[in-house]
Amino acid sequence: MTTSKKDNSTPSQIYDTFIVGAGISGIAAAYRLDQANLSHYKIIEKADRVGGTWRDNTYPGCGCDVPSALYSYSFAPNAKWQHLFARQPEILNYLEHVSRQFNIQDKIVFNTELLDANWNEQLALWELKTSTGDYQAKTVIFATGPITEAQIPKLEGLDTFNGEMFHSARWNHDYDLTDKRIAVIGTGASAIQFIPQIQPKAKALYVFQRTAPWVVPKPDLPLGEFSQSMIAKYPALQHNWRKTVARSLNAINFGLRHPIFLKPVNQLFKQVLKYQINDPQLLKDVTPNFTIGCKRLLFANNYYPALQAENTTLIPHGLVKVENNVVIAANGERHEVDVIIWGTGFDVSHPPIGKRVKDEKGEILADRWKNSSPEAYLGTSLAHVPNAFLILGPNVLVYDSFIGLAEAQLDYIVDGLTQMKQQAIRKFTIKADVLAQHNQLIQQHLQSTVFNSGGCKSYYLDQNGRNFAAWPWSLKTLKQRLSKFNLDDYDVIYQKDGKMQKDQTLKTAS
């Protein structure tokens, strides 16, 4: 584990770029800036090691739903994956290895949290207040990720519970679950991974399910020493493996955009489900009532066996109330438990970074997003937030590796920062009409996708039913759009005379 660094930088040093967060996106951002000779940057990380969500989520069974070959940086192939689908410890080790391999680790100020980010219009600089000092920077990359804020519902009587209680992303490894009566709230991606791990220990396990998810078999296999040695010896194997996985995910994304092609897939997996579940009532309770892909598709081989264990009870209703140590479902069912484990996911519609950042008008982003979900241009540029980028922002998600998406956005970001340096740009801000047209088209095209038309309520939809997360077109289209930073989409001020000029005007003058 990396030791803490204290950095009391004064605003006298102005960085070209400030990176907030050292998870998968922050590490990639640092690498790409170095490769582009844009190395005058600073990275801060609130924790004491890199890794982001793979550092924070240590629950039993935690792993990735994207095959290992694709869940790795294009610039850092890994021949040491132990499974086709990597587990959390090996992903974290990989991220730490990459950060050391490319000398990124030493550039990170750990145990340093962003408290406040303000745009100084007079200086055309970001002023950043952190828990260990203040900074100034010409540009900022917010690499804070969309799945960081653990979500726990506010329920009547929750304060009367006197047993143990924790969220899956804040797992209490010191608490022994052996012979305990356990209530698990939620059946999302995390829950279907940790439920099979804790079920054998429990005296009684009560699983509260509001909506039955689609859980399909996971084509996972261990990769032994022979496989690893062959991948290391012949890099083309991993390259072709990566291409094969990418093609498979492209096929899934095609189906998500054209739900008519998912109808036979629905029927196929309903038949598969019948072979997995013996009890007719349980089969009815776990059969999804929406089109596959509308909510996040889940992969597991041990979830349904865990639900059918003698000590497990599936409650096909949400938790609505707690009375001392009794948990009460929406149908009135009551159970006394010793521990509550929240598998309720994250608040992705209100990115936590929004509480720390003010736009050029001085308005906190979280206040702007109170009554509606955030918008961005290509998931990257926010309205009235100049000289700044957000990685894995609104409406950029497709079924693919987050690492691949982050790298695609960094093509765009690094091109923008390079143009800024080459053309002596003082300030750039996404144009209001460009942003509005972009998001209007996104929302229009999302209507026909499975996310909006598949008959479910997912975390992709905000409280108003607006889809703030998904990208409605192909991954190829997204990467093409992100391949070049087009200055015509931005209001630009140059250092030359501080006046608004078009890029072409500057080129002509020079």
TrEMBL record:
This protein's UniProt keywords: Monooxygenase, Oxidoreductase
**Gene3D superfamilies in the record:** FAD/NAD(P)-binding domain (3.50.50.60)
GO MF annotations in UniProt:
monooxygenase activity
Q: Which domain of life is it from?
A: Bacteria
Q: Which Pfam families did the record assign?
A: Pyr_redox_3
Please state what the protein is called. Answer: Cyclohexanone monooxygenase
The scientific name of the source species is Acinetobacter populi
